Amino acid sequence: METVLPGIGDDAGALLRINLTYLWRHRRLPNLADPTLFTELVQLRKLRDRDLRMPAMADKVAVKALVAARLGRAWVVPTLWHGTTLPEQSRWTSPIVVKSRHGCNQNLFLPDGGAADWPAVWRQAAGWLGASYGGWLDEWLYTQIPRGALIEPFVGTDGQLPIDYKFYVFGGRVSHVQVHLDRAHDHRWVVHDSDWVPLANGAPRLPRPSALREMIAAAEELASNMDFARVDLYQPGAQPLFGEVSFYPGSGLDRFDPPALDAAMGALWLRAGGHRLVTRQPAPTAIEVAV
Which Pfam families match (predicted)? Predict the structure, then answer.
C-alpha cells in the first residue's frame, strides 16, 4: 500500500508540539532534516507517515483477524466482548482485562471480573470512549481507529501480569527484544539483541523464553513489508500470545538504555526504508515555527 507523505511543514502546530515535547524529554531539539536517531524518526513518522496499514494493525479488535490468518488462532487472546459502551453489569467472575480499542495504556486488570466495583470500571471506560486518542502527541494512526472497548480473559499467572516481550522489527528482521517486567508495581525493562544478550551494562540476566525463536518468526511475519514496527508478544505458557503492534514506541520520547541504541536503531530504520520519511527541504525549528 502506498504511503502518503504530506510536507513536513504542512501542520505548523504539530511540528511545534513535536519539537517542544522532544526538547522536554531529551533536552535537545530533534534533527528532522537529517535524522540519525530512532527517536527522531518516530517524530518524522508522526508528522509524515499516513500508511493505512498502521491503523488497521494497531486496532486491538480488527488486528486479531490478521494475526489469526498469518499465525493461527492459537496466537490470539480471545475477545469476550467488544463494543462502544460497556455492559451495565459485569458478566464475568474470572479475571479479565478491560481495554480501549483505539488507545494505549488504557486498560484495567480485574481479578474478580469487575464484581467489586463495576460502576467505577464503567465510568473509567466511558472516559476512554468519550475522547479521541493520539491528538496531543500527534500520533495520527490512533485518530483513524473507531472508538471502542474490549474485554479479554486475563492471561497472567497467579495474578501476575505476563512478561511483555517487545520485538523491534526493521525491514522484516527482528534486531532487538525489549523485555518489560513487573508492569503493575516496579515497571522496568531490559533490551536484548536477537540472540538474547542483554545490552546494558549491569542488566540482569533474564531467563530466555522457550519460544523465543517462534516469537521472532511471528514478529517478522506480522511486520513483513514494513520498514519498522514493534510487535509485542507474551509467553504465559507453552503457547506464545499476540499483544499488539506499535508504530510510535514511547512516542519517540523514552530514553534508551544504553543510549547508543537510539543511533543503532536509527541506522537500522534508515537502511530498511526510513529514509522515505526524510524531507529534502530543511525542517524548520520550533522557534521558527513559533515565529
Answer: ATPgrasp_TupA
Separation CA 232–CA 214 (nearest Å): 13
R_g over Cα of the chain: 19
User: What total of structural domains would you count in the chain?
Assistant: 2
Same domain assignment for residues 136 and 174: no
Residue type, 43: Q
Kindly report, residue by residue over 237-248, the tens digit of the pLDDT.
999 999 999 999
Element (H, E) at 190: strand 188-193
Query: Does 258 sit behind a cis peptide bond, omega within 30 degrees of 0 on the bond before it?
Result: yes
- Per-residue model confidence as pLDDT tens digits over 122-146: 999 999 999 889 888 999 999 999 9
Segment (H or E) for 151: strand 149-153
Cell of 152: 479479554
Contact 216, 45 (CB under 8 A): no
Q: Which long-range contacts does 72-76 make (Cβ < 8 Å, 24+ apart)?
A: 74/239, 75/218, 75/239, 75/240, 75/241, 75/242, 76/241, 76/242
Dist. CA 139–CA 122, nearest whole Å:
26
Q: Are 282 and 33 spatial neighbours (Cβ–Cβ below 8 Å)?
A: yes
- The pTM assigned to this predicted structure is 0.91
